[in-house]
């Protein structure tokens, strides 16, 4: 390779959290040893990797020079390797500049020239399309993230640097286009598996229908996590924008190549750090973001730090939150199968910690202890598909109001529930959801009574804590 007169900028993307920014990078060959003076460790690693990939493809270089703009991109993100290699080949005349005009290249390179699965592919495709580029080349293993999710741009895929070079230098060289992956099977968590808990099952359905946060309080091992784990299965199927949003987020944390087609369920441990929960600005998203369009469960919620619980409720956007807790430190207060061993003062402190957390949730229900014989004799309940159909119908009614009942402004809620001015707002929200589940235009006294049974738990906890 001979030294070029000018660098040849090539379009790529740099990852900024869950979104990307379009940039142009350049790498040129030199007649001397590779110049890496002044580069960060990450930029130097990129330079070595790109040079090795070029050599593996038969383009031996005496050295490479990475201009400051390219070094900045390489030092802060992933995915720029392929564009840097193409830039070096364009600069040396191997590839004609006009052929790659309007084309972005995104992907990490291996030392052998392979194009590896890379974080942030969907975000890179989206920013390239928004910039008006005609095409983008991405790793073959990442095509499932972006195929058919981004219009107005052609998505090409390649497995090796050789494939890309051949497409631009050989008469019969071509790149394949991204294809839509086979739909993922739904997770095997069905509400029919839950036996003997009709009350909590009903609470789960109402929570799903109205988008209400839910608190489950009961002894250990009784099924609180089992219930919460099945909430995604009765939520409406994800829309295409929701699939893109969730896929973009998961790709940013390294779940590359996979499309998120089913609502996420996240259950971080109570020792999770604030950074891992909230994410880092312009960095990797946290557990709250990963639960977007799905469910965030805070199990053993009284063991979480107070600021962590506050952060979960504060920073979530479209995720529903389910909190679960024991009724006391030992877990058996009020249980029929075992006596509580906690001192009264210990129970009081536990309740004082739980009450304000439960107060953040519209629905608070006690999950009772059930004997094994009763569980064995209990029939299987309705399937998730059956319950989901009712949830979808109820949400369609709410869509006409513009928002789910859980977030409907109070003025709009009162307008949708005439004649119930004395009913507390939280109870009225849940009553409106119960009416929607039944397809009723008006909220009745029966709806309010049933809603009060689902919302009174928070008040009972607050009273016990005082």
Characterization of the model:
The chain contains 20 helices and 15 strands. It is elongated and about 80 Å long. The protein has 2 domains: 10-177, 2-Layer Sandwich (Ribosomal Protein S5, domain 2); 191-465, P-loop containing nucleotide triphosphate hydrolases (Rossmann fold, 3-Layer(aba) Sandwich), CATH 3.40.50.300. Helix 1 (41-56) crosses helix 2 and helix 1 (41-56) packs across helix 3 (81-91). It is 42% helix and 12% strand. Strand 1 and strand 2 (19-25) form a beta hairpin. Mean pLDDT is 88; it is low at 1-5 and 31-38. It is of the alpha/beta class and 466 residues long.
Produce the secondary structure layout:
Elements: E1 10-16, E2 19-25, E3 28-29, H1 41-56, E4 64-65, H2 68-76, H3 81-91, H4 97-100, E5 103-105, E6 108-109, E7 115-116, H5 121-130, E8 135-139, H6 143-146, E9 154-158, H7 161-169, E10 176-177, H8 198-210, E11 214-217, H9 224-229, H10 231-234, H11 240-252, E12 265-266, H12 274-278, H13 287-290, E13 295-298, H14 306-315, E14 320-325, H15 344-358, E15 363-366, H16 372-377, H17 384-399, H18 410-416, H19 425-437, H20 445-465
Helix pairs in contact: 1-2, 1-3, 8-17, 8-19, 15-20, 18-19, 19-20
């Amino acid at each position: 390779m001979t030294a070029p007169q000018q660098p040849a900028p090539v379009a790529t993307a740099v990852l900024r959290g869950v979104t990307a920014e379009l940039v142009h990078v350049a790498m040129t060959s030199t007649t001397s040893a590779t110049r890496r003076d002044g580069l960060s460790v990450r930029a130097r690693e990129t330079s070595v990797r790109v040079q090795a990939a070029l050599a593996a493809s038969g383009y031996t270089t005496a050295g490479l020079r990475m201009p400051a703009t390219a070094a900045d991109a390489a030092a802060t993100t992933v995915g720029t390797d392929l564009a840097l290699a193409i830039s070096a080949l364009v600069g040396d005349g191997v590839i004609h500049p006009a052929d790659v005009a309007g084309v972005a290249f995104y992907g990490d390179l291996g030392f052998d020239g392979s194009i590896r699965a890379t974080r942030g592919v969907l975000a890179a495709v989206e920013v390239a399309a928004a910039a008006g580029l005609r095409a983008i080349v991405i790793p073959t293993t990442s095509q499932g993230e972006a195929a058919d999710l981004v219009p107005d741009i052609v998505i090409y895929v390649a497995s090796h640097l050789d494939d890309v070079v051949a497409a631009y230098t050989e008469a019969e060289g071509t790149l394949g286009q991204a294809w839509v992956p086979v739909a993922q099977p739904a997770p095997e968590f069905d509400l029919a598996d839950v036996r003997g808990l009709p009350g909590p099952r009903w609470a789960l359905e109402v929570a799903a229908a109205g988008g209400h946060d839910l608190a489950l309080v009961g002894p250990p091992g009784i099924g609180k996590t089992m219930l919460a784990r099945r909430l995604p299965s009765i939520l409406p199927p994800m829309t295409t924008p929701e699939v893109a949003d969730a896929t973009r987020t998961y790709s940013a944390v390294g779940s590359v190549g996979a499309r998120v087609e089913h609502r996420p369920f996240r259950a971080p441990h109570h020792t999770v750090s604030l950074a891992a929960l909230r994410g880092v600005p312009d960095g990797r998203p946290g557990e709250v973001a990963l639960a977007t369009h799905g469910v965030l469960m805070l199990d053993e919620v009284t063991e979480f730090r107070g600021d962590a619980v506050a952060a979960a409720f504060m920073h979530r956007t479209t995720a529903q939150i389910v909190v679960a807790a024991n009724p006391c430190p030992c877990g058996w207060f009020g249980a029929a199968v075992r006596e509580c061993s906690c001192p009264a003062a210990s129970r009081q402190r536990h309740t004082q910690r739980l009450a304000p957390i439960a107060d953040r949730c519209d629905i608070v229900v006690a999950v009772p202890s059930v004997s094994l014989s009763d569980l064995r004799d209990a029939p299987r309940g309705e399937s998730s598909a059956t319950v989901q159909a009712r949830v979808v119908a109820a949400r369609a009614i709410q869509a006409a109001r513009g928002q789910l009942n859980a977030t409907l402004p109070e003025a709009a809620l009162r307008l949708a529930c005439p004649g119930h001015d004395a009913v507390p707002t939280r109870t009225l929200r849940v009553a409106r959801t119960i009416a929607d589940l039944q397809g009723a235009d008006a909220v009745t006294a029966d709806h309010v009574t049933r809603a009060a049974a689902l919302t009174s738990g928070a008040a009972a906890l607050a009273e016990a804590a005082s």
